[in-house]
């Protein structure tokens, strides 16, 4: 593979959707993955390097503004232009609103909302200076509708939709395409926690709980992370910039 001069920054890039996105986008750009677990990030970079691509990782907490600044500095150090930013890092915890721990609420907002803001703010000057870039904010179907026992997660995901819409209006004339990606349930740790929670609350088996989750999608399936990665790659290809500000919903019609 010829040396690329453009790069994609992916937060939460060590596992799940973030990993799938990194492995998909490495076909077209260099990759910088950001996350908290070095072993996962290093594994992604090794896989990309083994395929002839170029990748680097940064260990950090996205709720710390300095992590975003360090990621941009890493791209500058490597002389890579930041073409794509995928704000994928997120956490979630469910529970009744009336007894939800305020500290957990603050943690969710710090990662899911503040983290996205810090990375967008850090990347925008470089993107604007080069004539534009693509920003994918990993929202959820929960960013478009409400779920019981999910006030904190739903609020954070709704905020990302609003953030993308604001970016689209503010910077669309300067080449910024900002799209909130809104999948339904995706295979991974978060969906596994949902399944375990259903098992506990309803007294049902794992297969029964998984079936209930899958039924949320009219296609009766839980999405593979690779399918979400393809949607991100579609946005980052830049062929339909009019998508900017519009949720890209991956729910099978839910």
From TrEMBL:
InterPro entries reported for this sequence: KR_dom, NAD(P)-bd_dom_sf, SDR, SDR_fam
Coiled-coil residues: none
UniProt protein name: Ketoreductase domain-containing protein
Record Pfam families: adh_short
Top-level division of the source organism's lineage: Bacteria
Organism of origin: Candidatus Uhrbacteria bacterium RIFCSPHIGHO2_02_FULL_60_10
Annotated family: Belongs to the short-chain dehydrogenases/reductases (SDR) family.
Domain (Ketoreductase) ranges: 7-184
SUPFAM superfamilies (alphabetical): NAD(P)-binding Rossmann-fold domains (SSF51735)
